[in-house]
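User: Predict the structure for this protein chain, please.
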Amino acid sequence: MSTNDSEFQAQAKRILDEIAFTPFEECQSLNREFDNLPIRPGIYAIRHRTHGLLYIGKTKSLRGRFRGGHKAFLWAWLDKYSDEDIRIAIKIVSYWENPTLLLELEAIILRATEPPYNVQIPTER
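Assistant: Here is the predicted structure, written as structure tokens:
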């Protein structure tokens, strides 16, 4: 593993810790317009109050990503989760000028957590 790879792994762990261990009450609650989410690039987690991480993703606009709908909300509804028990944890990132970097960070986090609503988890290269 090169220095870049180990730095990348450490950075992915910091992001994962932030989105996984932010107290549930401090995560963004659901609303129709998602006005509480920034229009910034980031990595996000859809979390359940007691079941933990349900889905992890990346986007160039956090607010835009959720305003357009999200399959994880449909799956949570099908699993009969209350909307009071679902929140969004976010980590704003400044890597959007390098999408490959953001994609790799997301892949590392997905491999480490394997959230149930992520259908396909990227394999390590």
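The chain has one domain: 3-113.
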